[in-house]
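Could you help me review a protein record that somebody else here produced? My question to you is simply how this chain folds and whether the tokens agree. Thanks in advance; the entry in question is below:
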Amino acid sequence: MNSSDTDEKIIEECRSQSKDWDRYFSILVSRHQEALFQYLWKKTRSIHNAEDLTQESFLRAYQKIDLFDSNYKFKTWLFTIATRLCLNQVKKKTPDSNAEDILDQEAQKESTETDFGLWEKAKLLNEDQYTVLILKYSEDYSIQDISKIMDKSENNIKVLLYRARQALTKHLPQFQEIKEKVTT
């Protein structure tokens, strides 16, 4: 087995041959750590929380690897774990202000200057619409994968995506102008 094998093949081979699981799991971590962190940073808007949730997601995946169904992609399963952890954190979260939050706000400010405030406006949407946008346009997941991650029907995901795009169009005058120019 080598590092170019698929995630699912690595998991299956380790299960069947009782190989050095820690070593192979580290390959999975290195493949998905950055993408998972970026997703969680966009969801939580906090570097500290994103780091914690990334670590917790991998820990849960490691602990529950026997529950992984190889008919699905490992990355989809991992993002499902992360999304649920993130939702649990939001339910428990109490507002606090510290140096981490200030750094996070500065990083967000830099990000919004380059994306015309699109993600800032997206934060105004409800949690499901915001999550669908991140998974679709930032993480490039299919409707089917988003459906699995969010535990919603594909039709529900399509509706959420449609409504989120419509809401963003209304909130961003520069996109309204572009839309008008294209249709005329």
Observations:
- The chain has two domains: 1-114, 116-184.
- Residues 78 and 181 are 41 Å apart (CA to CA).
- The first helix runs from residue 7 to 17.
